[in-house]
Structures are given as structure tokens and as C-alpha cells.
Amino acid sequence: MSLFVAEGLVKRFDALLATDHVSFSVEPGQLHALIGPNGAGKSTLVNQISGLLQPDAGRLLLDGQDITRLPPHARVAAGLSRCFQVTSVFKGQTVLDNLLLAVQAHAGSSFHFLRRRAAEAALQDQALALAARTGLAEVLAVPAGELPHGAQRKLDVALAIAARPKLLLLDEPMAGMGPAESAEMVTLIGALRREMAILLIEHDMDAVFKLADRITVLVYGKVLVSGSADEIRGHPQVQAVYLGTETTEATHA
Ligand SMILES: Nc1ncnc2c1ncn2[C@@H]1O[C@H](COP(=O)(O)OP(=O)(O)OP(=O)(O)O)[C@@H](O)[C@H]1O
Question: Which residues form the ABC transporter domain (predicted)?
Fold first, then answer.
């Protein structure tokens, strides 16, 4: 069974069909990338998946559960975490405090049987483990707002995986990064994909081809093609529409 299914999604903005009967699925353990030129409808689709926008038709299934009508926080509880293009950290708080808040928010009742000291120690352990996994162990005492851009994005990822998602939705995690920071983010995502399925929306094509098991290409709100990284790389229509050098979008990508 697919871990995540988008089935016949439709979203209209007046006369514009921004999502035109989009269907694709993410398999367990896979990193699935969603690419497409500017204006193809990626953000509109991601917002429907995370629950910020309601589709006009179609449905979304996560691990067999219909999540189409759930509000965003209920989707997180169901196992779908999103990392935003715009950072969601508390900038005045230290990295450690941000991690502790996130771990605590998702701990639920799991520490209720512990005494307060022991529960605090368990939360602290989880926050430190999260920092180690995401390469933030050296900057725990730094206020989040003072981190370099790349480290802020890592903190975003850390906050999203604190919820222990089944599917992690990464919305342009490399945006605004230089080559060194991008390379670090590719390494981090590469490590996470062993633990959870990932849906990656990204303009950086090198990163997409390095990381993706499957790629879905959106053009004018429609799925042009879905396939393995090799199939997409060699697909003539994809090359013409998206990877070709003749369009400004391709330069941007
Ligand atoms: N709230 C809205 N109201 C009206 N039109 C919208 C709205 N949001 C998006 N659109 C339109 O829908 C189309 C798809 O936009 P969308 O932002 O989803 O594309 P995108 O692939 O994410 O683009 P980019 O890569 O530039 O972020 C565009 O033509 C856009 O102008």
C-alpha cells in the first residue's frame, strides 16, 4: 500500500485551474520529488497537502486514512509534518529551547508515568538527539535568530521531524543557500530518508537528482510525467519544458 496518495486533486482560482486533476503517490521509504517551472502549481499543491488550502475535488490518503478534510494540526498528528519555505522557529529562543518546545509539543502522554525530573531529563535527551541528527549540536546556546541561514533551515527540519512524521514535506529546503549549505542539507535529507518517506519540492535540480527515488513533474497545474530519476532525466518532454536551456524558468531552476 502506498504511504501517501493524492487522487484527482482539483483547485481553481476563479478561471485559473491551478491544480488540474493531480494524482501521484509516495511509497514507504521513498523520497519523491515534485518539480516544475515557476507557476506550475507546486505551492498550491503543497498547501492542499498540508491543509492550508482545501481542494475543490479529489482526496488525500495518508497510510490509508483520508486526511482531505483534516485541519493542518490534525494532519501533523496523523503523521504528516511540513517544513516551510518561511522559517517557523522562535527567533529569540535558543536552539535548545526551540528543540525542547518541539519535543514537548509532540511528547503527548508518553512521559506521564515519569516523575517531573525524569520527564525533563527524557525531553532533554530527545532534544539533544535531534540536535545531533540535524547537525546543530555545536550551536545549542545560540538564539535561533542569530544562526546563519543554513543552520536556521536545519532547525526547521529538526522541528518538523520532532513530530516523528511518517511523511516529511520539505518545501524548497535549499532556497537561498550557497553551495556549501546546500551540500550539507543534501547530506541531512539523505540521512533522514532512511527513516521516513519524504516529499521534496525543490528548484535545485542537482539536489533533486541526487536524492529522489521518484520525480513528478508539474506543468500548468497538471502532472506531465511521474517516473524514476533516470526516466525523468531522459524524458524528451521534460527536457523541452523544464530542463531545456531555452526558457527563463530553466535558468532559474
Ligand atoms: N491565492 C491565489 N489566488 C489566485 N491565483 C493564485 C493563488 N495562488 C496561486 N495562484 C496562481 O496559481 C498558479 C500556480 O501558482 P503556484 O504558486 O502554486 O505555482 P508554483 O509552481 O509554486 O510557482 P513557484 O515555483 O514560482 O513558487 C499561478 O498562476 C498563480 O498565479
Answer: 4-245
